[in-house]
Write a structure and sequence with these properties.
Chain A contains 14 helices and two strands. Chain A has 338 residues and is mainly α. Classes of the chains: A mainly alpha (338), B mainly alpha (352).
Amino acid sequence: MSAVVGARPVRRRRLSTTAIVFIVLAAVLVLSAVLVTAAGKPFFTAGNLAAVLTLMSILGFVAIGQTLVIIAGSLDLSVPYVVSTASIIGAGVMAQGPAGIVPGVLAALAVSAGIGAVNGLIVTGLRVHGFIATLGVGLIISGWLGTSFQGSFGSAPPEFRVIGATLIAGVPLSTIIMLACAALAALLLHRTRLGHHLYAVGGSASVARLSGVRTKVPVVVAHALCSMLAGLAGLLLLARTSVGSPTIGSQGGYDLMSIAAVVLGGTLLAGGVGSVLGTIGGVAIFAVLDNVMSVLEVNPFLKDFIRGSVIVLAVALYAWRSVQRRPPRFRPGKEAAP
Amino acid sequence: MIATAQRSLGQRFLSGLATPSGAVFVLLVVLLIGVIAMNPNFAEPGQLVRFLSRTAPIAIAAIGQFFVIVSGEFDLSMGAVIATQVVIAGNVIGQDEAMILRGIALMLAVGVVVGVVNGLLTTVAKVPSFIATLGMMLALYGFVRFLTGGAATGNPVDSFREIGRGALFGVVPYPVLILLAVGLLAWLVMRAPFGQTLLAVGDNPVTARLAGTRLVLVKTSAFVLSSLAATVAGILLVGYAGVHPSVGQGYEFQAITAVVLGGAVLGGGRGWVLSAAAGAISLELLFTLLNIAGIDATWRPTVQGAIIIAAVALGAVAWRSARKPKPSRPAGATGPAGTASIPTTTTRSGER
């Protein structure tokens, strides 16, 4: 993405936001390595890197979906409840044994996609702000979860739990699946008509409308995909914990943290600008910070303080310079930013 | 506009009720009648006043959140501010009566600082308010839990807690008086030039800036008002909830729900401040109604979720219809003939 070449001579090349995200990530990595080494513990070990990658996977899924929704100019606050729902449904169907794995996964993903479609239809059809629509749907689901399930529910067979425990060349399988989803999402955004429409609608719904784009379809699809990815996150949590839990999503705080990760990754909250690659960088920054703080045994409550400060500082860093700028996609003579 | 000025007070009242900000009062009355029908005891003045006193903190929080939302921003740090203030009250005031005034002064100062930081992050550093206040929320919660270890700590002296649970002459609870005072102040603020500027900023920041509004000052003031309201809510909550770092959790979303239920539009520019308080009271009435009807408390979120989606969907329709035909306002639907100066088509007049 830094390989964009201007047609006219550019006096001072401006770094793309994604580049800054990864510079911040590198800085965080270096700082962490120094801090951890100074504390007399190794940082770049296979075990520790696998721990960081595992931390990335769950939030990663949710954040990829959130990226799509935010680029389309909406927001999804219902993800934690979708995560819980998927884990409950998956565990319920899989309780019958290995034969239930495929139906369980399919059922969980189908229900998640359905929730997402409802979100999208409320946003587009009833013209309710994404914040309220998804907050409302999330509350509706949480009422159902809280009423119908007390404690854990169902169970996952050992064959399914393997997914949560497998390492391939030192990389957890769940992280590989997450990165594959990220690649697919990036492909969708940059190589398909739907992806371009997502950017167009998020940038300005009325301009997109006047240009002949069906503004409702991309938003509904983005919401459905976002919820499906949240459902995948729920299934992976199920593979890790082996029982479905009605509170696993809200405990993780995936709604606000995924939005924070997306914005940390350089995506504009207002929509229309952003990339999945940046989001992965944002998620990685969180994962490294979390890992370092637990290795250094920082007080868990102080973690939140540091996390909050990092979010604000990092976003201030590039919000400061990128908000007024037009997205590079529309600059003449420049390639589309990846 | 001329037509508006010519209409009588009654007509203006009726057309006001037809806007989302007015409809919430209809909803409030309907809910109140519903609750009283199912539980006649609720109509007793004592019960009503006690209910109002229980609702005061969330209503005050909603009033604070209104200022931020109407200027086009969010304040997610509200719950964390409440928790911070509660913990400050417990630690600074403690059992020392002499510290009460100094403690309150400190809490107000902390509220102002949080608001200023939120406002400057949003306006000067250009961090979206959603993220800025989310960061503030994480930071404050982390700080509070770090200080307390996540457990309940000592309550402040009883005479301070009286503010939240005492009553003037043993009849009118202080929270109700404070709610009335805050409501009156908020109403005056929104009528003052500052309030009108706030609405203008929320409606269209570009034109507001071109018209000479100092966006930084106006928006930061809105954030300060919001965290001051959270501070007052915190002072009241110490009274009957005691000191625990989880006091105030979820208040930000509750307050946003109330504001939206009160007809304010996310994105700013539309709404009435007292409707926000009415939204909060309606929400609590609804929960009371569910309680009396014997529905499990676990279903509360579901009802809340359905209600806010419905309210916003209806509100969007109503605001659009109130806005589109400029010459003939939808007042034609409620008021008698002769109000509109130009009798154009009123196809949307059937919608509320």
